[in-house]
Amino acid sequence: MQRVLVLIRHAKALKETLTITDFDRPLAEKGMEDAIKVGSILRKNNIIPNLIIASSAKRTEQTAKLIAAANGYKNEDILLQEKLYQSNTTVYHDIVCNLPNEKKTVFIIGHNPGITDFINQLDAKFRIDNMPTCGIVAVKISSDNWGQFSLANNKVFLFQQP
């Protein structure tokens, strides 16, 4: 059985200031435009989520909601995970291993450097130095079980940015 894992870095956010912490930084206007474009790119490629998981940081939640809207996914069904904020590959791995098996296409929206590091573990033939803001990496995973994804034949089939 084939599954699809789509990894997306949050869109461009405003800079951190004395009054806005890193966690609470909202999207910049360009970030909002890019997130809408990414949602459209995914829809045009017929990559429609059964589940969207996002870091609970403000910019990541906003990115998720814009992408969800472009794909007919309800905002209230987005799972926000604080552990994705400033996370490492172990967190991404644990999330994927524990996905419900009935979900065939899953979007995870997170942050660098963890998302770049995790992507570089998925397909031996695909490497990136830095996942760009609002970048998309979609991976086909040949496994009957999300818990076995790291043993599966994983293949990146889409790498794009707005």
Q: Topology of this structure?
A:
Blueprint: E1 2-9, H1 29-44, E2 51-55, H2 58-70, E3 79-81, H3 89-97, E4 105-110, H4 114-119, E5 136-142, E6 153-160
Parallel strand pairs: 1-4, 2-3, 2-4
Antiparallel strand pairs: 1-5, 5-6
Helix pairs in contact: 1-2
Q: Provide the β-strand percentage band.
A: 15-25%
| CATH top level class name | Alpha Beta
Question: Any idea what the CATH architecture is?
Answer: 3-Layer(aba) Sandwich
| Tally of separate helices | 4
- Radius of gyration over C-alpha positions, nearest whole angstrom: 15 Å
**For this structure, what is the CATH homologous superfamily?**
Phosphoglycerate mutase-like
- Please give the largest β-sheet: 6 strands, mixed
Number of domains: 1
CATH fold node name:
Rossmann fold
Order of helices and strands: EHEHEHEHEE
What average pLDDT do the residues reach? Answer: 96
C-alpha geometry: globular
Cross-sheet strand order for the largest sheet:
3-2-4-1-5-6
